[in-house]
């Protein structure tokens, strides 16, 4: 039971110089282990617009990153604000998905904040990190019901919610660890909550390959 492909993002940094160091380190990791590690850009959306988009551009076009993260709690940003929308504009421009932290950190981390954005940016794939965690599971369900371009990261999500949602909203869920130390726990959860082999395969592999547009390394 292992994960041979991982998408890595830096911890949230509030200044450009620090996040560039972390982006560069991830870029080197991806270069050393091609096809096994992929990068997700995570500059602060509070940076100047040009600085923000230039760093996203560098990550995607030079480092080969495949997604953008907006950390609502760490950056104290409403995803629906002018600053938050930078991530969605960049995702549309570079044709990559955007991951949004949900759960702890209300009001900005409430899943309902995604609904308007998902409708406006219907051409952008959005990953709802943690699916609101257990506290905002009802909000997460409403998002999945209303927005077909929203996918779920299963980290910190109770097994019974995953069981129910994958049957109700389809194969729109993917394994997430949130932290390397939590990976085996999350893998075990998906393997032991009564999902079919097909449902497990979609969570552990197929959905993320589709959303992030990656192929298994041969």
Which features would summarize this protein structure in a list?
about 220 residues, alpha/beta, TIM Barrel, 9 helices, 7 strands, about 10% strand
Written account of the structure:
The longest helix is centred in the N-terminal third of the chain and has 17 residues, at about 15-30. Strands 1-2-3-4-5-6-7 form a seven-stranded parallel beta sheet. It has nine helices and seven strands. It has one domain (about 5-210): Alpha-Beta Barrel (TIM Barrel), CATH 3.20.20. It has helices at about 15-30, 50-60, 70-75, 85-95, 115-120, 135-145, 160-170, 185-190, 195-210, and strands at about 5-10, 35-40, 65-70, 100, 125-130, 150-155, 175. By secondary structure, it is an alpha/beta fold. The model has no long low-confidence stretch (mean pLDDT about 95).
Any idea of the CATH topology? TIM Barrel
Question: Which structural class fits the helix and strand makeup?
Answer: alpha/beta
How many separate structural domains? 1
Strand content: 5-15%
Describe the sheet with the most strands. 7 strands, parallel
H-E order: EHEHEHHEHEHEHEHH
**Rg on CA atoms, Å:** 16 Å
Percent helix: 40-55%
Overall 3D form: globular
CATH-scheme architecture = Alpha-Beta Barrel
Low-confidence stretches: none
Q: Strand tally, please?
A: 7
Instruction: Please list the strands of the largest sheet in the order they lie side by side.
Output: 1-2-3-4-5-6-7
CATH superfamily: Metal-dependent hydrolases
How far do the termini sit from each other?
19 Å
CATH classification class: Alpha Beta
Distinct helical segment count: 9
């Amino acid at each position: 039971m292992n994960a041979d492909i991982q998408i890595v993002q830096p911890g949230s940094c509030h200044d450009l110089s620090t996040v560039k160091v972390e982006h560069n380190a991830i870029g080197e990791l991806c270069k050393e282990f091609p096809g096994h590690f992929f990068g997700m850009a995570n500059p602060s959306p509070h940076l100047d617009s040009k600085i923000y988009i230039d760093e996203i551009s560098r990550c995607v076009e030079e480092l080969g990153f495949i997604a953008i993260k907006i950390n609502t709690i760490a950056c104290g940003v409403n995803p629906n604000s002018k600053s938050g929308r930078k991530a969605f504009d960049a995702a549309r421009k570079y044709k990559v998905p955007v991951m949004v932290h949900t759960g702890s950190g209300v009001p900005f981390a409430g899943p309902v904040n995604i609904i308007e954005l998902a409708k406006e940016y219907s051409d952008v794939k959005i990953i709802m990190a943690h699916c609101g965690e257990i506290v905002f599971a009802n909000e997460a369900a409403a998002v999945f019901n209303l927005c077909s371009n929203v996918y779920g990261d299963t980290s910190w999500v109770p097994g019974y919610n995953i069981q129910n949602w994958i049957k109700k909203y389809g194969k729109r869920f993917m394994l997430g660890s949130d932290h390397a130390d939590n990976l085996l726990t999350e893998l075990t959860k998906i393997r032991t909550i009564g999902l079919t082999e097909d449902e497990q395969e979609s969570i552990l592999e197929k959905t993320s390959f589709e959303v992030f547009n990656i192929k298994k390394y041969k």
